[in-house]
């Protein structure tokens, strides 16, 4: 037992912790109390739903609003909250409430969980994270509840408001609207669209960024990480909104019937949600191929590092673009916001991207072999959505075979924890090389 404990490094504990949460969630969702018909979900459906909720993905095999009872929906909501913030955040909160000190090992776990650079100030950061989460979800929940109260009874409106606020802040994308329709009924509603877009964006920035913005009034400075996240988020959101507006403007199944204002809101929503939220106001299966491919790219990129989102992260994307630009200009150093990016960061960005691409390609090929009933675009979209923990689907998810469902479950799990975390968890501790090989020149391009 002691030998086993000694082999549990932080990445392994994170993997096992998330797996344990999924198992508990699966057991709860199989209970008769969890579904409207009183029969409970099958093990396969329960495992898929629990994984999707814990990995804050949003892919569903049964409609959340139509199939689950209040108990089942609350279980999903707790899985979303734990999965979005990380189980170590809740464990730390419990230790603090019990008056226990946070050990060095637990601080290392927090560091790995938030993908932070150092362990300094992590306990303070956890307190801030809980503060941010409570405030943002309460404000978002109240705004949505007030809006929903015009369409449904007050009690139901309050419940719907807070469910969707928690789901979207954690970038999960689960909804209670029923019929696998998502938020399509509110495609041109400015209150719902703007509120949910803000919740998704705040959840996707990352808690490190949110904390720096909170302290900016005192420090008057932002790290290069925060600057990259903010700049890239704004750039990707505006560019995607414009492109989707142009791609879908004449599509009579999506933006075509809407007013000009409705077209802008519809474009904005679908520009924000691929950054791993998974909610939708436009029918995904009716989008043009150009829009679908653009969304695949955005789902793969994801949002901020250390956030509730998935994907390779926008900092990884920014580092790769900056590296490419430096090579084109024949510059030796990669510079972002007047800061030189160290080679270790560039190597890590390349590794994460290549691992992500290999996972998506591998899963897409397997889906095309296992299913053989749909278009290649549907398989690629589904694989990328699972890896990016997005939750958007062209309608393929409910039709997947048991083997394909298991494949998507593993992809969601890998996407939430990150390829590097899982790789470090299943490999031995890295050691310094005893010697270095001589240099070799290779022709590139």
In short:
This protein is an all-alpha fold and 445 residues long. It contains 19 helices and 2 strands. The chain has one domain.
Rg value: 22 Å
Main sheet: strand order: 1-2
Arithmetic mean pLDDT:
85
How many β-strand runs? 2
Beta-strand percentage range: under 5%
Silhouette: globular
Distance between the termini: 52 Å
Q: What is the total number of structural domains?
A: 1
Biggest beta-sheet profile: 2 strands, antiparallel
- Helical residues, percent: 55-70%
Low-confidence segments, ≥5 residues, pLDDT <50? none
| Helix and strand pattern | HHHHHHHHHHHHHHHEEHHHH
Q: Structural class, from secondary structure content? A: mainly alpha
Number of helices: 19
Features:
19 helices, 1% strand, globular, single chain, mainly alpha, 445 residues, two-stranded antiparallel ribbon
